[in-house]
Structures
1.
Amino acid sequence: MMKLETNRSLAEELKALGGDAYKCYQCGTCTGDCPVAWLNSEFNPRKLVLFASFGIAEPLKSDIPWLCATCYKCTTRCPRDVKPSEVLSAMRKLAIRDRLAEDKEGAKFIKAFADIVKENGELSETKLVLKLKGLLGSTKMLPLSVAWTMLRKGKISLIEKKSPSAEEVKRIFELAGGGNGRKA
């Protein structure tokens, strides 16, 4: 059995960023109501909240916190107002800040999404898929015949558009710390 290191300062930092894992009495309501946990037995919000309360860093190094759909079902049902979805968000924030998440699919998605919105003022789904999967990888997600039909009908575009409020959106990102998880 692997010994898990506890870290009180990490637990306090997670609490300061969101949710209060210390309130949790491990009833399991969050996991019982979680649609992701129904589909993936590795995803267990109750266990992640327990790890957060003890300051156990292992989840920060894994893909597990990134699986959260952020549906807030766990938060609305929690009898102790722990806010598990916010605890998981705090885990993701620390993983980004401490550069533990750079190779995680969820972190790559969030970074690509934020970069595109910061640059254009709005999301371009085409650019997002190309940035995440590349040209060849994107054809595995969407067959060329389907992509061609969508392109002809105007459902997707290869022409990059900037929102009229792109500069304002860029300023918001800069005020928020540049979209890199750090405050300015």
2.
Amino acid sequence: MTESKKGFEVRNRPDWLYNSLPYVYIVIGLVVVFGLGTSNLIGVFSGILLISTGGVVVTMRATHRHELARLRAEFAVNEREEDEGVRRDDEDERRKIERRQNERRKSSDDSAPP
């Protein structure tokens, strides 16, 4: 199955496969580099590219997860503060209404004949 997300095709993969792919790149790169030795420069270059690609992907994912966790925590704090602000505003509004009602009662009691 594919979904379109901002113009890119996203394939649903199991989490274990998605999370392990960069490490697979690194292991395959190490096998290629040490398996071929220095006799095949193109193979060694390919292995180094696989190792560096795996490292970059691991770093990017860690950075993204850290940033996502920070944003979620910040959003939760902002949402909590907003909820408290709304409650405060509601409480203030309720007090204003009660004050107006009390003023009307007093004014109607004052104007009523004894």
3.
Amino acid sequence: MATAPANIYPKFSIAHINPPTRFWAFPVLGGLIKILIMIPIFIELAVVGLYTLIITVFINSFVVLITGKYWRHCYNINTGLLKLGAKIHLYFIGLTNKYPGFSLDVSGFDLNFTYPSASNRYFAIPIFGGLARLVLLVPYFVYNAAISKGAFLGVIISSLWVLFKGRYPETSYEFASDALRLNISQTLYMNGISDKYPSFYISLDHATLKLLLIIFAVSTGGWGSTDSNTNRNSFINNNSDLQNINFTPSDNVLPNYGQQSTPASNPTTY
């Protein structure tokens, strides 16, 4: 997988899984079992997501307005929720065999955030700030939705490759990783953790295959959803609604594969 430019935020990387578990690649069955065993985590995600939404919208926005600083506790909870969402998403799509667990920290991959030294007060104005970010992100929503749909289709196809070949294709691994990072970047901007507009960068290795996946997925109406809790992300908690429309506890937590990445109250996410 190509190394992302140094200025890409957030920093995210995960080693290519080797070997993936074939059992999880069984069509429908593997995914359903994963969903069932993660129900306790989804409950935690919903509770923490709701709490995150409340403190981000009703407390942090005023903290930023008055001090020009992002409330540290709110930052920790938001980024923790994104990490939990990322773990859920990566486990669900088979990029890791490690059960997500309940921790708001990461293990098995790198996902690093930087606490903002200062936050834009204008974007913290109730209602106006969230709407302004939404409008600015419209092109990104369109782009992210197309990438997510293509990546999700790649994941579906890759499940058959894992089932019969016992390995995860490089193209899908790379595409799914980039899609998750885009989703998290969108959430960070929407929640005000970053005032830097999210990057459109994805690796151009295997560009032809990725383009074909995007075209096919988009032309057929989208394959599934990268969702927030599942996409939710992202997947990783749609922290996208958290800041006056940030990522709600379920909208960006899991990357949004196949779903229009529309902000929702979200905490985290991938």
